[in-house]
Amino acid sequence: MHRPSRRRFRRQSIRRITAAAASITCAVSLAACSGDGGDKTELIWYINPDSGGQDAVAENCSTDDYTVTTQVLPQDAGQQRIQLARRLAAGDPSIDLMSLDPPFTAEFANAGFLAEIPQDVQDRLTEQSFDGATAAATWDGQLVAFPFWSNTQVLWYRKSFVEKAGLDMSQPVTWDQIIDAASDNGGKIGVQANKYEGYSVWINALISGAGGSIIEDADQGADATISIDSQAGETAAGIIEKLASSPAAPADLSVSNEGTAGSTFGSDAGSFLVNWTYIWNNYGDDRLGDDIGYAKYPESVEGEESRPPYGGIGIGVSDSSDDKEDALAAAECLVSPENQGINAEITGNMPASAEGYEYPALADLFPPDLLQLFQDSVDAAAPRSVTPYWSDISSSLQSTWHPPSSVDADTPAKSRSFIDDIIKGGRLL
To answer: How far apart are CA 395 and CA 64, in angstroms?
Structure first.
């Protein structure tokens, strides 16, 4: 199968980024660009860092009435939340649109920071979007953010390594199987286990794949049931304990993130990697060529379908914006299937809708079976609990499950007690 080169991918991205940069330059001098004496509205969209996709669709959605310009948030999701929350709480009108990580959507909506989306727009977005994307953007029965892209993790593997290990990747594999295969054959497994949100994502996926959950009745807020102390929680702890104590654990396991895990995978010791869809753009052509394979996320329990992590971005409109009507119209444009496809082409962050996957350039950049795997994995994905308390729950998980080498059978019970105390106000993080 012919695969497009990374050079071609970069040329396409550079053309789009250059066009977007021209749009931003124009926005700096609105009077010169608008042709109407400088009355054109500027909508400011606070975006998460990427390789130019959001700038490109911002240009596409600028109109004769308004220009959409971008401001980049910090790389770390937690820092993004802090910066936005402080300014939104102060009623800062300079934020019109914002790219929101799913776990913070409920918190912002519950606090009244997000503008109400008209019901007819909610209906169109719900019909357009994957169920998981809609669920991640919903709070209290209302869609509160515009689903933009939906990310999921798959199991990436080195074909040469699994051939040496004798592992049949045409069948579902378990965490136990890949840890054993890597340990017995000199391989290292790339995961996200630093003390950050990515580690909470991994823990949540392992527990969900074993049939459990971190919390139940999330809509009850502080009165939600903390359900991590369960058989599923013990299964997840056992997987982390096994990897951390095995030869398959990379030396930087306790500080590993998406980037370092990718580097481990691309090294001579690379074997398996759980990571997001953009890995194909980073390693799937020039760097590893035909040696990169992909499969469904590993099973926590043999015979039980895995629940890969769900990630992505929804676009929120600030309730404090002076131009909410224009911002709501711009947001619907930004998440159109075509613009989702353009963003995916440039960034590797895949669309939040099936129609977005039909964007023609994606068929040139990704093998058809990989595009199907991404969509199947989104359908099976385990979102983090939609609750205003997720930030506290995630920080509590990181406090009680880190470092990975400390995890054992007692960890789920310790974390249940800690999380319960935190969200009920009995102690501080």
So the answer is: 44
Residues 91 and 234 in one domain: no
| Distances from the Cα of 69 to the Cα of 22, 28, 157, angstroms | 11, 9, 39
Distances (CA, A) of 341 to 9, 61, 347: 14, 14, 10
Angle of helix 102-110 relative to helix 77-89, nearest 10 degrees, comes to 20
Q: What is the pLDDT of residues 350-393, one digit of tens each?
A: 999 999 999 999 999 999 999 999 999 998 998 898 899 999 99
Tell which residue, 274, 2, 295, 300, has the closest CA to residue 159.
295
CATH number at residue 55: 3.40.190.10
Q: How far apart are CA 44 and CA 69, in angstroms?
A: 5
Residues 95 and 16 in one domain: yes
Indicate whether 17 belongs to any domain: yes
pTM of the model: 0.86
What total of structural domains would you count in the chain?
2
Neighbours of 60 (CB within 10 A): 18
Half-sphere exposure (CA, 13 Å, Cβ side) for 332? 17
The structure tokens listed for 89 are 């709480």
Which region, left, alpha or beta, applies to residue 210 given φ > 0 means left and ψ of -120 to 50 means alpha? alpha
> What range defines the domain where residue 244 resides?
152-309+384-423
In a domain, 120, yes or no: yes
